[in-house]
Each structure stands twice: as C-alpha cells, then as structure tokens.
Amino acid sequence: MDVPIDPHSSRALYRQLADELRSKIYSGELKPGAQLPTERELMEQFDASRNTVRLALGQLANEGLTVSGRGRGHFVRASAPLLFLATRSESPDRRANTANDAWTTDVTAQGRTPAQTIEVSIVRPPQNVASLLELEEGETTALRTRLRTVDGEANSLSMSYFPMSIVATTEIVQPDDIVRGANRVLAEIGHDQVRYLDQITARMPTPDERDALRIGAGIPVHEHVRVGYDADDVPVRVAVTVLPADRHIIQYELANAQ
Amino acid sequence: MDVPIDPHSSRALYRQLADELRSKIYSGELKPGAQLPTERELMEQFDASRNTVRLALGQLANEGLTVSGRGRGHFVRASAPLLFLATRSESPDRRANTANDAWTTDVTAQGRTPAQTIEVSIVRPPQNVASLLELEEGETTALRTRLRTVDGEANSLSMSYFPMSIVATTEIVQPDDIVRGANRVLAEIGHDQVRYLDQITARMPTPDERDALRIGAGIPVHEHVRVGYDADDVPVRVAVTVLPADRHIIQYELANAQ
C-alpha cells in the first residue's frame, strides 16, 4: 500500500493524489493504455474520500493524461506519437527524392501508413501569413490545404501559402497532388528555398480543428509555421501545420557548427 | 451590424458566433487587451439568445483567447510573446560571450528585463531524461532548476540535468549562478556540445506549474527538451524548458544547406 498522502500537508489532498498518479504515468509504471485503479481501490489505497479521488482523476483528465469511458474506468491515454522531423523533411537529399513528398517519406519510415487529401484555393491569407510573405494590401495567395491521416486516423492539417505573383502559372495552382512536392516546383522556377524561419506556438484547438482531427479534451495543438526564403531573400512559401499534441513530437537535429 | 450567423446552417449558432469573434481576434480587428462587446451588445448584434452568447464567450475563454474579470466584461488576452531563440541562444558566437548566459542576453535584446533564481540538487532524473542521457540504472544527475521572470512576472522554468559522473567536481554542482554558463564549464572539461537533438511537446500545465508560472485557464505549455552531445557522441546535458504558450514563440532559423 502506498501512503504518499499527508493529511497534514498544506497541499490539497486531491493534488497530492493527482501528483502520485501523474508521476506513475510519467515514470512509465502506468503505461499508455493501462487502466488506473478504480475509484474504490484508490479510496482504500490512499485513505481518501470519493470526492478527493474524483477531483484527482478529473485533474489528470484535464491535463490530457487519461481518458475515461462511461462506467469503464480510467485509462492512461494511449499514445504512439509521430515525430515531425523539422530538420530532416526538407534537407537537400530529401528534396532530391522526387518519388514521394517529404511527409509521406517520413511517416512511412516510422512504420505507419500515411494518406492525404488536398484542396487548392486562391485566398487572401490571414494577417500573420500576409505579413510573413511581405504581401501588398489585397495580394492573393495559392493555398494548398492537406488533411493528413496516419493508419486511417485523422492526424494533422497542413496549409501552404504561395504568393500568386510567383506561382500563378505553375502546377501549384492545380487541384492535384504534386508527387515531387511543391518545393521542387518552386526550385524549378528559380525560387529554391535556401533558408527557413520556423515559429512554433501551442494553443487549444478551435472547434473545427477538434472535429476534423478528433482531438480529445485537454489536448492542445502545436502550430508549426515555416517561412521559406529564396536566394534573394524573398519569402516564397508559408507552411502552417496544425499538429495535435498528444500525437506529435516536433524534432530538430542541429549541428552546433552553424 | 454584422449578421454572419445563419440560423439555417447546420453549424450550432454559438459556434458561428465564436467563429466570428475568433476571426476578429486573429485578424487583429480585436487587438490584445481590447474589450469584447458586452453580452447584451452581442445578443443584439447577432440576434442571439443570452445562452448562445455565453456559450460562444465560454468557447473563446477555453481556447485561451480571452479573459474575463468578474462583472468587468471579456477582453482579448494581452500578449507580448517572447521569442525562445532555439538556434541562436547557443550558437558559437553566443557561447563565446562569457559575460552573460544566453537566455539573459536574448531577453535583454528583446527590450525586456530578465531575472532568475537557481536551485541545485542531486537527483535520479525522470525516466525520459535518464534514457536520453543513456544513464545506468540508479545513476544520478546534477539538476539546475531556474525559475525565470521577465519584467518581474513569472515566465518559465528551466531544468538542466548533467550526469554526476561527468560534473561531480565542477561548478555545476555549486548552488550558484554560473555567469559564463554551464555549457562553457562543460566545454572546459572536454565536453563541448557539438550537436543537439531537440524535441518539443505541448501539454496542459500541472497544478504546480500553473501556480509557479501563473498560467491562466485554457493555456497549454510548450515543453522544449534539448539533448547536447559532445564530440564522442556522449549525451552530456538534457535541458527541459517549460514555456507557457501564451507568452512564448519558439523560433528556429535554419540554413537549408545542411
């Protein structure tokens, strides 16, 4: 019997109980998918009231650590996060692979099955994108929106914006997949991206994102924004990727020689 | 009068209203710190019930976009996010700056006033850190924990773990600030970090983090984990930084030649 709860502590009992369960989840003692002890078991183990136990379990659910099925108990959220390989996806050797786009290649390499649907539209982009692309007032962009699935489950949303002044006569405005990737098309018309600026924010999903990506309670999203600049330092693409945080780790590999 | 709400849409009215307000926040029409129209004004403007208006406002608060003061209305969350400069902080020229640590330098350069308190302890690290440091069972680490403030407000938590087998006889185990930075100390004892592996996750804060960093409802945290490897590919440091997402953008600048 674990008795980590100290009734004389100034820390609320439910918080002490939540701490104890959380540390078992973080340490791996309670593994992804594992069932937590029942409310009754927790009440006995920790000599706590039902109310204290429920508050602690609610706290863990709010943090996105556990899920509960009606009357079926509480479970550690099963997660097999996918690595979003920020430095690898668009490296030169990857860019030279014209058989598959970078994301498809990366997901396949992790033993998962990728798929995506694409929509192409002409839009005035949101203010932050317009400003990153240094657009004039009213200038339009081609927007390629991809809803991506992995192993048949909704996975992420990717929106790439390209100034119409650059891409109007290219495949980028066609409503089809570009197998060799839009970056390659940009390179072919003289706008190879030689540097990137990445900005990563995290926030709660909008209701639309929650629906489209099946995001559970207490789960935020990463918003990964990449601006690609050509050799003349012109921003030629802004890629916004929305990644549910329970399913994605963003990874960078950096040589410290830069 | 805006009438974007369509009662015949299949989309719930409160969601349409939340969409409308959200897009005004994202577009900058409603700026950080601005007051939203009152419940009564929204009811009139959108011909909506009080319940619909409240659901919409609640949705925006849950997304962390707005805050409300009791009886004082609803406001767009004021944000002046700090850039966490992941590629710049520890670049060679920065590392050569021995007068200030990298974080202090970066924050000062953004016109803000940094401060930090430090605690040093010897711990068995959490499982994920132990595994990133490739520790043997039971091996200990020096842990340097910094609570950082910017302009006098709690800002972020930084925890750096170093294998005791490497740092036991260095300043790193002293409970004092190291002005030239712990990375420099590592370099001096032959463990200059030549490459990094960064992994970024996002999650809701724990209650302790919420208290320590004054994190409001609906605001997730970034967890930025950096592993530093020396020239022999030995992991010599794991730095875990917890960044409230309303106050931080993580930024990477990448040359596409790597």
From TrEMBL, chains A, B:
Residues 11-79 form the HTH gntR-type domain. PROSITE patterns: HTH_GNTR (PS50949). GO terms for biological process: negative regulation of DNA-templated transcription. SUPFAM superfamilies: Chorismate lyase-like, Winged helix' DNA-binding domain. InterPro entries: Bact_HTH_transcr_reg, Chorismate_lyase_/UTRA_dom_sf, Tscrpt_reg_HTH_GntR, UTRA, WH-like_DNA-bd_sf, WH_DNA-bd_sf. Keywords: DNA-binding, Transcription, Transcription regulation. One of its GO terms (molecular function) is DNA-binding transcription factor activity. PANTHER family: GNTR-FAMILY TRANSCRIPTIONAL REGULATOR, MANNOSYL-D-GLYCERATE TRANSPORT/METABOLISM SYSTEM REPRESSOR MNGR-RELATED. This is GntR family transcriptional regulator. It comes from Actinospica acidithermotolerans.
